[in-house]
Amino acid sequence: MHIYTFFIACVLASISGAFMLALMDSNHNWGGDFSQYIAQAQALINGTIPTQIANNTLMMHYSDGVYGPNVYPWGYPLLLAPVLALFGENLLALKCVNIAFFMLFIFCFYAYVARRFSTQASIALSLAFALNPMLLNFASNNILSDISYMCISFVAVVGLRAFVAPLEQASKLAASPMATNTFNMSNISLGGGRSDLGIFVLGILGGILALAAYLIRSNGIAVLATLCALHLYFIARIHTIPRIRILPIRLVALNALPYVVFVLGILLVRYTLDSSGGEGHIAVLLESISLKTIVRNALYYAGVFCDFFALPNPLALLAPSLLESKYAFLLPNPLGLLAWGVCVYFLFLGLRECYKRDMFAALFVGISLGILIIWPALQGIRFVFCVLPFFAIWIASGVLRVYAKHPKLIIVMCALLLGYFVLKDSYHLASKHNTLPRAILAIKPPNPYPQAFDLESKQVYAFITTHTSPSDTIVFFKPRVLYLATNRLSYSTSKLERLDKAQYLLESSFAPLFDEKQLAHLPIVYASEHFTLYNLQ
Fold first, then answer.
1. How many other CB atoms sit within 10 Å of the CB of residue 51?
2. pTM metric for this prediction
3. Distances (CA, A) of 422 to 19, 132, 441
């Protein structure tokens, strides 16, 4: 890497990091995934993995709906564990893991695109991520695996693309009409200029990255599946040549390295932790998958990329009832849809130009989206973070083709997008630090309910910890959050007949499980503005 490229990559990563640090707070939303990641990290530190797995399995089994797997993949908890060991359950410290990975992603992304585009184009493209309000807010205030997975999967795809390139070159050379009948596969330079040692190192690193992607998120298997599909394609292509009967052992051994590393890594994790992670996902998939969910998900993911632009939704003012309907999640932001529609045009132009060069990335994107379309659960744009870098590269390729004919138009479009991102980031910073003008504060709606670790939430956790037995079970709408905060087993149900397994019911005014009339006969042992604790004994 040229020192100039290294310097620019560091500056871009630092700009992004500065924004994220300024946007951080010591709270968290009510999403339960973060609490399970932290609980698994704590189990790694304390050596209580079997207990954690058993407790979470019990809570998931007792709950009405499917909140998640019995065990999440261990990769992200392993990343959290050192921070947790040093700083305890400090949310600010734990959020720094995602900030570090997002900065690393910005660095790697610029270093890669700088090899494909001009310096100006590479900086503009990287800033679309480094200044993106949606990504900055997500990375700075969510303890979730999506950011680290985006970073690791991007590096894995780029690295393995370089690893498989020599075999692609060999398949083309073997099938070439220029090849003679005396053509010998064993004489091919597998490294495309690299030594066998270079390919060996790439294979080891590629296997480690593919393993890391899978251990962070189960759909990281798309990295290895992509490599396998391309290997089969190139090998099949070579075998169609009559004069080539057997592939050289050297070629087979070098190309098998990532798979060997991956399998050994999974066996090591399974042996060490008594669980490879992700248990419970397959059962959910088999029970819930249907043609209806596939069609729904295809429609959903076709429009979810609109959220990348973090544009205000005019439906909130013009047709708020639509956003409250049953199918509101399928309604994309009209302004975002317009921006995404323009990007799709550039994406088409870019793919036409790059699909041969980016075959590995294109196949990875296709497999990743295919998994998401089949997978029943929907979780917003965070599930497609891993494909955003490649979409951006292809869109940039299309933009540059148009730039040759209409440079002023493209410059204005890029300036408007990045200028809007800066304004939106500035608004978020002012809002976070209470420096918005009074006129805006007057129309900005206050937060209607406490977050998971607001003062009121902490007070009810403290009461439960001091006034209930460690063996008590408490019904709550977010059982994994309550388990993390109080070390009490919990489950969620809205059926009165299923309260028999619990000693207490913690109701919230903003997400009630029951109607107040149904609970009128139960004694109240604690009450605050938003929480009420009922005794079920």
1. 11
2. 0.93
3. 10, 8, 20
